[in-house]
Amino acid sequence: MLVSLAAAAQEIKELRDTLREAVVTAEALKARPAGLTRVDLHQTRQMVTAMGESDVIKYIQTLPGISSGVEGTTSFYVRGGNLGNNVVTLDGVRLYGYGHLLGITTVFPSNIVDNVDFNVGGFDAESSNLLASHIKVSTKEGNFNNVEAEGSISNFIISGYASAPIIKEKLAITASARISPVNLEYNMFESLLEKNNAMFEDVEGSVYDLFAKVSYKPAKNHFISGSVFYSKDDFGYGDYDNGSFDNLGWNNFVANLQWKYSLLNDRLRISASASYNDYSSNQRQEKELEGVYNELIIKSLIKETAATVVADGVLTNNGLLTAKIGARYNGSEFNPGSSRVYGEESSMADINKTKNSLTTIFGQLRYGRDRWHLMAAARYNIFRGDKNGADYKVSKPEISVSGGLMITDWMKLEATYDRLEQFYHTLEGIPLGWSVDMIVPSNGKVEPENSSQIYAGLAFSFNNHTFSIGGYTKDLDNIIYFEKASEFFSSAASRWSDFIQTGKGSSYGIETLYEKRGERLNYKIAYTYSKTDRTFDGVNRGETFLAKYDRPHVLNVTGDYVFRRNERNEMGVNLQFTYQSGNMETVKSGTYIAHLPGWEYDIEVDWYSGKINNYRMPAYTRLDIGWWGTFYGKRLTHTVKAGIYNVFNRHNHFSLYYDNDERDWKQVYLFPIMPSLSYTISF
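^ thats the sequence. predicted structure below, dont judge the formating
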């Protein structure tokens, strides 16, 4: 359990930017591609979170077709896919570790974000190496005319942001920095923790992220940018009195160079990018056993260089037919689960190192008339890697199709189809959703994962009200089951390929979304019914079982109301309610009485049936409420945000463990009722 005051940094916009359209028209319904959601950044900044920090993924977790992972984290599961089947990109570069503080918030700050697209079906040509979803985060170009700055302080996050022109209308620079004093916070409130439910003790932490971007407009039709992003998490906890200490850490470093050029009156656009990506995660455990010091280190590394060239344009004079073609090359070096053990004097630093490449050629056509549109995208992937020291090569095609038909001015039929391949795989540890989960490449023994998904539904628009209902079905093949997930922090991680099972999965569901938008009152109700299962020949006797994050019922209700708005200030309240069926866990099936020769009494022995995911945890429910106020001065804008996370103090499930002393399963929860408070100043 964690008790603390939390707060958030949130981006401030001028009053005119906070006004929203009161009417969602049929024209907007016509233009909206099936399977794509443009994330409402205004709503993400008003949401109450455990950390108090604005978080686009927390907003995405409230959409239909999505189920959350462990309590309070950014882990999410989309239409029956695994956690690693989702991709998060920052300006087109994949973020392998997108979670801060064990996944409780995201690594990219909200004040650098320009827009976010969330795609779950009908993927565009540039989306690849995924099976479930793509979160595209695009950063701001920078302010080419004026200086703007923002600072925010809270218990969990201290942040600063600035953007300014170096040469007006030509050259601009943007910078952001955040740091979290989480270890000081945790230790300050440690006395308030219930010992049996505390996740950690003797906490040490170093958590921060940095972002810088230079944008240049050398000519009217040219745009060049270079950016650098770095995030660090180093989180330790232990009991020094008993001679034990555990450390978790992960780092991201991304350098990205982009060029965009438009010509023929913007009928043709050409873009190119080159990037370098360095990601590492590590786990270290120190223990003193019978006077002997032992240390185990498990480390995983990914180094990746990428280059992309894309051309897209309008093919017809009436603008109805557009096309896109391009190519991407990724060269990567993986070193998953390299380990070092002191006390046994062994080292396996490079045992799993492999070099890989993924080349993707893609194309896309989109045709749209007044009442209907159709998009088709195709990708051809060539993956090269290592298979037991020999060259491994595989070629895989992909296709995505989406379409929409306006049946009436207020009703639209839409559908998507996707046949996808994924060449990188995530071995999920316990609890799921932490950024230390290990990522491995295809290698012959682990073939590329693939999925086939169909969605069809109806969308309705009535003035400022919209409603959609649809159903999906998904089949997955070559998906991963890591047999040693419960022993993830052990030398088994260095021999990960020996404990891999591949199999099949299926999922189907019905998704509904009702949304009302206005100048003052906005609310959204999302409900999903679904079922997700897995089948592996060597697991559960080959019988099909429910996936760990099969949650049949997921309901999310969000709303915000602006009760004051004028030239001097603006105030509002918001709430979020979520209900989710409990996830599946594997627990003992019962006990039986045994008699041992020579013993005076019978003993009770635990009995395990061997069934995987044989127990559904209690349902997850939570209510959050918040208040925010923005106050406009002549030069400065002040924003205060206060909230209460988990109003009813529900002890929702975080993880489950077996107490050998008491011979009973115990549930660990992380977040009780939590107040949050933040203050932001901007100009």
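Residues 453 and 474 are 4 Å apart (CA to CA).
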